[in-house]
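Lab notes, practical 5.
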Amino acid sequence: MINKIDKNIPDFLLSPRYRVYRHLLLQLTIMCISSSVFADLSGEICATRERFYCFIGFYFILNLDVYCNIYLLAPRYLMKDRIFSYILSVVGLILLSVVFISILQSYFYHFNEMYPEEEPYIVLNIFSSMISIGLLTFGSSTLLLIKYWIGYNQRVDELASSTLQSELKFLKKQINPHFLFNMLNNANVLIRKNPKEASRVLFRLKDLLRYQINDSAKEKVLLNSEIQFLNDYLNLEKIRRDKFEFFIFKEGKTDQVWLPPLLFIPFVENAVKHNLDAENKSFVYLSFEVEDNNLLFRCQNSKPAIAPERDGVGGLGLKNISRRLELLFPGDYSLKIQEDEKTYTVNLHLTL
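Output from the prediction step:
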């Protein structure tokens, strides 16, 4: 409910479709202030012809004052940080308006000499008019500043969102060519070893690439789809390497979780890349645990006897995915990496 109200207020102030309603609300406010001329010193309503003329004059003077401020003084001085010039201009406009109101009231109140007792009221009404004009003018300036401030923040948010999407697309493009290179290299190795098996693998690679090209363009995909994608990828790797094994563990409602696509493949690519061991068995173990609004992902791989050097958290791919996590889950994720003599483990916690 609060979010709906917060959204409606900027819409009412900024949206062109509410322009007429904004002016009607302003006219109603000016009319209510102008109607004060019908009250006398005792607080009773005095609806004489003279006061009606004063009401009409006061109403038009207030309109002239407010719209002159909104469309002339504020854009020319206030919005350009010329505060001193703006204050002088507004004060001059108020004084000029009060002069016209004084002439107007004096003329109409002396139009008929039947109300000499109303002269103290005229002075009081002029003073109250000055306060009313000042409050209305500066009030309209305040609303104008709020309107500009909301519009500015919306433009900043739109620019930030556009920049965020551009950066995410850039990071995703950096990950995809690396993955595609690995896959084609795997297929090339298989073609040399076993052409029939390579044909079957190429069909699987086609499915992988279809998922990567089509689903990676989506904002979110099902976690189960991501897991199936990783399973196909690791199956290809298993065919290419005789002493490689993998296992994927799932727990919880993985079929109900939606996530940005290609979120885990950099971790798996990195695990496969750094566990090559021609002499001994190598493995990659993946775990996905969903509990309430939390997802725990673990990627553990074996380390060869002579491990290649790692760059930071595992190279460009993992640096990119770390940046993606910062953009997609700001403050809602934790990434921890553990390493010992035999294994390398990535632990990722996401708050969904």
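Observations recorded by the TA: The chain has nine helices and seven strands. The chain has two domains: 2-158, 194-351.
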